[in-house]
Specification:
8-stranded antiparallel β-barrel; globular; alpha+beta; 180 residues
Length: 180
Amino acid sequence: MIKEIEVKAKIKNHAQLLDKIKALGCILSAPIRQEDQVFLPLGYDLDDKLKGISVLRIRKNNDKILFTLKQSQANDLACLERELEIGDEKIMREIIELLNFYKVVEVKKIRRKCKYNDYEICVDQVESLGDFIEVEKMTDQDVVQTQEELFTFLESLGVKREDRVLHGYDVLMFNKKNEK
């Protein structure tokens, strides 16, 4: 089954990273404002082990509204993901709540992205968290091997191992909100 596998790192030198991305022949998109509401089943929190548990998201993505279901597979950054565009955020939120999910956190960011081979590169400015780079790949390959491949690519852009982040923005925001 095809999964979204990604790696993420804190950005230390924004200008240098953008120069290296540009040197690959990549052109980052115009900034995209994304506002996410993340929902979990009642009884769960983002510091629980969520492997196989559905995490739901409503994302305002500039002028679109997207509904996403994610199920963590091997770790936080390897998920079975299904997404579709919706027309009414309020109704979707009501449906989610009727399914006994609750809003656990919100994440707001400005994203610029591009494609490089079979990777999607995202450069994010996340409110309250800072600047990050993500590289993701849709694949049915081994998670650990794919994440190592992706991080090796990040290292080619000058990203250091110590800057690697092992959780999604939702968990990082939850931890910051709860000072963990």
